[in-house]
Each structure stands twice: as C-alpha cells, then as structure tokens.
Prior knowledge:
The complex is a heterotrimer of chains A (310), B (263) and C (367). Chain A is mostly helical and 310 residues long. Helices cover 70% and strands 2% of the residues of chain A. The longest helix of chain A is centred in the first third of the chain and has 35 residues, at 78-112. Chain C has helices at 2-34, 53-63, 75-86, 100-105, 125-128, 184-192, 208-221, 232-240, 252-257, 289-299, 302-312, 327-332, 338-342, 354-366; strands at 41-46, 66-71, 92-93, 109-110, 134-135, 138-139, 142-154, 177-180, 225-229, 246-249, 264-267, 273-283, 315-316, 345-347. In chain C, helix 2 (53-63) links the parallel strand 1 and strand 2 (66-71). The chains are: A mainly alpha (310), B mainly alpha (263), C alpha/beta (367).
Amino acid sequence: MSVNISTPVRNTSIEKKKKKHRFKPRLLILLIPPLIWLSVFLFTPYVALFLNSFWRVDFGTIVHTFTWDNYIKFFTNDLYYGTLLKTLKIASLVTIFSVLLSYPLAYFINFKVKKNKQLMYTLVIIPLWVSYLVRAYAWKIVLGQDGILNSLLISIGIIDKPLEVFLYSPYAVVIALTHIYTPWVLMSIYTSLEHIPRNLQEASKDLGAGRFRTFFQVILPLSLPGVIAGATFAFVLAMGDFLAPQLLGGTSSMLISNVVYSLFGVANNWPLGSTIGIVTLVLVLLILEVTHRLEKRTSSFENVKEQKGR
Amino acid sequence: MEKTSRFDWISTSLKASAVLIFLFIYLPMIVVVVYSFNGNAVNSFPVLTWSVKWYGVMMNDSALLASLKNSILVAVTGTIIGLFLGIPAAFVVDRFSFPGKTIFERIVLLPMILPGIITGVAMMSVFVMMRVQLSLTTILIGHGTFLIAVVMTQVYARLKRLDRAIEEASMDLGATRLKTFFYVTLPNIKTAVIGATLLSFTLSIDEIAVSYFLTGRELTLPVQIWAMLRRGITPEVNAISTLIFFFSVVMIVIVTRLNREVD
Amino acid sequence: MNKKLWSIIWLALSCMLVLAACGGDKQSSSQPAASKGNGKTLNLLTWEGYADPKFVKGFEKKYGVKVTATYFGSSDELVSKLKGGGGNVYDVISPSSDVAGYLVQEKLVAPVNLDNVPNYKNLASKLVDMNDVKKGGKVYGIPFTWGPDSLIYDADVIKDPPDSWDIFWDAKYKGKVSIWDDISNIYLVGQMVGLDKNDPSAIYNMTNQQLEDAKKKLIDLKPQIRKYWSSAGELNDLFSNKEVVLAVGWPLTPTTVNPSGRNLKEVIPKEGITGWIDRLMIVNSSPNKKLAEKYINYVIEAQTQKLVSDATGYGVANKDAVKYMTEEQAKAIHIDDMDNYMKQINFWQFVKNRDKYNEIWNEVKAQ
Lengths: 310, 263, 367
C-alpha cells in the first residue's frame, strides 16, 4: 500500500537556508538503531531481489548460475514489456482522472466553503479509513450485471438489457483505482491551495484580472507543486496495484504487478519475478526523480510568495 | 445586490461538480453500508429483504475476529517501532550532514513509494532464504519498515519548519542537548508525532500488499478479507467494513471538533 | 485539548481491542468444552470445499482440536505456497494428480504411517493402486476425492444440454462464459482437437507447436469470456449474480449454487473432459504429523466421506460411503459405476514443461 507522505512534506516545507550544525559524531548514535533495522530488513531484501533477478529457474528451483536471460526475456517478450506499457497507460488514466476530480473539489472546499471547512475536508478523506479492498470490491456491486448502474439505466429506459462493459473490464479497474486514489490527490492539492495567501487572489482582482485570469495565472501555477506531488503518488500506486485488476478486471486487465504476483505466487519463477520487480523499481525511481525536479521548478513560485509574505 | 443576483454559472457549476465528486467518493461507501443489511447473499439490485444477520455471522466468525486482533496487534507494535526508530532518524537527518545522507534518505523512502508488492516479494525472498518462518512477526517487520519511513517524513517536515532559535535559547540557558530535546523540541513537534501515530496506525491496519507475501499461519484483517472476497463471501465483509467505517467517521469527526475548539 | 485528544484515541483503540478480544474469547471459550485434547490447531491447505464445517466440526469435537484452512486456487499456487515459505505453516494438503508426484519427488511431503490410518484398506483399489505417490515402499498420499472438470451451464438459459466445448466459442454466448484461471485450459484445448485420442498423456506433454496453436485458440476465446475465475467461490458468485451461463468447473459449483433456487447442470461434451484425483498428504515439516494422520483417517471413514460428498458433490474414495447415501446421491457421484465413469475422464498428469504451460497461459491473459 505504501503511501507517499512526502506529498505534504514537499508542499508545505519551504526550504529555508539553515546553517547546519557542525558534524557531531556522538549524536550519530541515534542513527544506529534505525540504520541497522533498515539495512537488515530493507536494504538486504532489495539486494536479494537484485541478485535473484540474475538466476535461472529449473522446475521451480532456483539455479544459481548468472544469466541475463530474465532481462532479455522481459524486453523481448510482449507478455512482459507489453503488460508494462499497458500498466503505464492505465496508471496515466487513473492519474488524470484523479487530478480532474480532486482539483475542483479541493478548490471548492478551500475557496468557497466558509463554515465547516475543516469538517468538509475531513469528510473527503474519511474514505481513506475504509479498507482499500472493500472500496475496490464495492464497485462490483455498482457495476455488475444485476448491479446498481445497470438497473438504474434500465429503469430510466436508456438501455433495455444490462450492459456487460462496466464490470470485469479495464474501465472498472480505472474507475475503482481513481476512486481509491482521489482522496490522496485531493489532500495534496488542498494543502497547496491552502497555502496560497488570500490577499494574492485579491491583489490579482484589484489589478483588474478576471476570475479566469486569476485562476490560470495565479492560483493554478501556485498549486502546481501540489498537483504534481499528488499525481506522482496516484501514478506510482496505481502502477503497483494488483488486487483491483484481479477483483474487477476482465480478461485483459492483467497489470504488471499481477504478472509479478503470478510469477511469485503461481508459476514459482522467482528470478523472472525479481527482474520485473527491479525494472519497476528503477522506473519508479526515474519517475520520482523527474517529478521531483518538476516540483522544484514549479515551486519557485512559492518561494517568491514566501519572500513577499515576510 | 443587483450584481450578485445575476446567475453566477461558474460558481454554480463548481458547486454542482463538487457535489457530484462527493457523491462519487461516497457511493461505494453507501453501497457497502446498504448491502450489509441485505438479507440475501447475492448482491443484486434493488435489495429485496433486509436483515442484520450478517452482523451476527460476523461476530461468530472466529477467524475474522482473530484477524482483526492480529491486525491491531501488528498496527500498535508497528507504530511503536516506527516512532522509536523514525523520530531519532528524522532528528539526525534534519540536524546533521553525514556521508551518504542523500542515499540514506532515498532508501528509507523506498518502501513508502515503491509498489508494496515489490517490497513484499523482496522481503519474502530473504525470509525464505534465511529459513525464517513466516508469521505475524514477519508481517510486523514489514510494517515496521515502512512505518519508520512514514514517521520520519512526517517529523522531519515539522523539524524543518521548527524555529531553531528556541533550542539555542534553551541551550544557552544551560540545558543539555537531551534536556532540550525533551523539554523544547519534542513539545514543539508533538502534533506531528500525533499525526504520524494516527497515520501509521491507519496505514498498517489497511496494509495488504506486503502482508500478503509475509503471512504465515495467522492472517491480518485485510488478508483475511481478501481471502473471503476471493471465495465470494461478501455480506459478512460488508458488515465488518460498515462497522469500521462508522467507527472511523465518529472518531475523525470528534477529533476535528476538538481541533476546532482549540483554534 | 491534547489530553482530550489522546483520551479519545485511547478510547478508540481500546474499543477495537475489546471487539477483537471478544472474537478471541469466543474462539477460546469454545475450546475448553472440547479441550480434552491438547488444544492444538491443524492447518489445512486445500482446495475449496475440503474444510467444510459439515465434516470438519466432527473431527474438532472428537479430538478437541481446531482445524483452520487456507485455500489455494490452482495446483501451481499450492506448490508456490509450499516452496515459498509456507513449508512450515501447513500440516495437511490436498494436491491433485498433476503435482502430487512432484511434491513427493521434491521431498515436500512426508510418508504416511498406514498403521495410523486403518481406513486406508477400505478405499477403492483403483485409486489406491496408483503409483505416483509411492516411493521406496512408502505411501505419501491417501486418496480422498476425485471428479471432473466438466462443462457447467445454466439450464434456465440454455435449454438443450451442450454436446461440445465448441459452444464456448459460440457468438450467442459472448461475454457469458467463464473459464478457470489455470493452465488446465490448455489441456482442454488439446483435448478438443483430439490430441489425447490415443495417448491420454499427450495433452500434458504438448509440443511447442501444439502449445502455440492452443494459445491461438484461447486468445480467440477471449471476447467470449466474462472473467477467468480464480476460485470456486468466485465461479459460484458469477453464476449466482447471473454474470455467466457457461463455464468449466467442478461439481462443487452446482452443489453450492443450486440450493438457492438455481438450475445449474453439468455435462461431458463429446470431446471428453479432464479430471482430477485428490490425495491428502502431510507436509514434511509439519509439527503435527500424528494429528494429521488422525485427521486423514477420520475424513476417509465411510461416514465422513458421505458428508464430504454432501458438501462438494465430488466422488469419494471410500466406496462404503454408499451405505449412507440415498440412491440418487450415489448415482450423482457415480460411486456405483466408478470404474466405468472414470474411463471417460482424462485425469491430470504431471506436466514436465509446466513453466512453458504457465507462460503460454500468462501470454493468453496478457493479450
């Protein structure tokens, strides 16, 4: 489930130039317990994954002879790289929809709601406390053959027999994942909107800018870091999801993590599974690096604002 | 007054879309609650018979309740691990530069950002290779590892914004560094710590991707629910989700109210 | 305020703990009543339906132990679970004929002491005589149940019993078919083109070309498929919610779904069907081997086997179970003409090139 908490961090914390204290080795003792924990339980597994990706498998038993075969297989067999591309496509759709849905609501709560603002915000993120699995599966009831959507459409006469395209299709996966990640994206966008000083909006109006201009030239650029952080988060998590496709996906909704799942949990081919794991890992790191830079560039607006605010 | 009486289509459409999006977010939740009272085991629409029997079934499902207990155990312990290892790490990372700091920061964040399944299979391979029996302990290790990252980032963000002058004042007045930490720094980052605690607990309770691969004899709640969903046992799952949902709503609303009173 | 906040958090946590504790209590309170035994827990890793309370409860009562079950959705999942860290988690497993021998070879299971399983001698000789689970004069697997992967259809929708698997490709049933998320679909396609006419094992040892052909055929089928089911429960749900009308499945599905007023039927199409023989085995690293043997002996008792058949609709290994059955039930599971009926089924065998089969199947899914 891994959650990108750095989202609010990146938005709210404005890098102040701080004088670093002198290097005090004595205090590094504090770092020893977490360091030991992380190197045993985190670093080692990732290294193991990396090493595993170079072994071979024979009858479900790992053979420790070095080979590039798994990587070659990944990049030449449509099953693997094709699925990765499909995953990226689905993740992009989920990201776009999440942002499109979160932005208006975040904007509305932040700028239009006067009373109970905090309560509204809380209500939006409450779904995060409902089991992820249950939220995904609830869509089964909504989208099914005898489900709510079909029954509703039939009763108002739009269709005369239940449509099958809703459930067990890529659409169902996209809808459910969008639903699951929208609150997270919203949190991120809301935080960045919240940090925009009201007087900026007023200043823009005073200077004669219309509402659209104010939005596109003042509000949107200032909230961009929040949008990017939230989008990154939704993208990366949607990319790694394997339960929603299994619950709601149809015959062609296998995503890359489902392949990993099947290689570890069914086909018993750990080396190839590890290879896909490593490829995904590298990809995620790349995405993070890119968006991190994007965020930094866009947040220069924030710094300006901060200086003005002083 | 005349000006505002003009139909403001931007505001109206904004409001309308906000309501729709709200509906979208809440629709599945409503569905789960309604269907938990469905007398029939088949999820057809509309609901024909109403019943509370699934709550009874749930309360008698020892496997489900045992998994809830396991989940709470893992979440509480995992959060404690996260706090005890995450806060010092955040402190050191904020205050000192040391060789390999950037790498350290990146690696710590990995289990939070990487798809859980990858961390899960990576950890499982190591445990299996080292012939460690999979159990609640291995799940706990998995959770502890990403909760360290959660706590660290939350606390680190607050420390970054903390005004260093008050600490310096404390030390100028003769307090030791340790004393300063407990009497000055800690109270100032208290809300961040509380936030991190709640967040860690919540994340751990709902975690499945990592847990799935590290599960031995005893399951956590999400793993149990997954097993039930796969086998099509759904009304009971609706019932327990409804309970958890209302429980969260009440708790969160109370916390929000309290926060507002203070403000 | 912070005190208040904390008290609420603690209150909340303690509420949840109490709720959980209630569950724990129920669990433990049921134990003293039956705790003349040692309060041990026996962990089963089985196909669905093999830990039904109908027959497991009796064992729990008799020996004062608790039986918990984890279900696997395919033979490969079973092997992966045993190899991937589950080796010391489970006590009794129920592999099918395709991987049972492999588990023996890999030393993942332990020999059964037949002295502790006196009911073994009452099992059908046809099943007991199979050699794949015997090694060095020791027996590793005790026959439990057997059955077909038959064509299941919703008789309310399809009036005439289908006589060929071709109906799955019939455009009339587009989006109304479900097949198993498992490599056994490859056997099915092999059977459809008659590969096993002379040699039953041919569909378990298909050549690369034959596999490619099978892949094509399965990809052609994709638009027809609503969902690949990954557990019997999921298939039951698909039928219950009227998502599908045709599927490959086990007798468990009609047995489970029909009582709620539905009319599912199974047939053997003219191309033939595959099937399975499930044996019970004891995991090598199980700490509860004695208890596991007691369990095995219990579930192959004639009376228990009748209950097993009630719960699953499968054929059972103990022919004496017929004494407790109605004529109708005995007929439904073909216990009286077992030898004859079994001839119609091509029972799963070990697939040497399992990796390749799995890859082909994954490629079909990824298309």
